[in-house]
Amino acid sequence: MSPQNFNKRLLIDIFMLKRLMKNKKGIVSEALPWIIIAIAVLVILTIGIYAMKGEGVSLIDKVKGLFKFR
Known about the structure:
- Helix content is about 75%, strand content about 0%.
- It has one domain (about 5-65).
- By secondary structure, it is mainly α.
- It is elongated, with a radius of gyration of 26 Å.
- The protein contains three helices and no strands.
């Protein structure tokens, strides 16, 4: 296949793809809420680890205290 034919075929394929995808939603719109939730969880975990850095054994006691319903 000559370079000119390849370029023509590529342009035709791109044009057809644009026509087919004209009214379609992107995959990003479906995955975006999950990406935002994942980033939020990572931020919360990072802040929590940084805040409790150096706590040592008392960190375990704090976690135990969360699960006591007294």
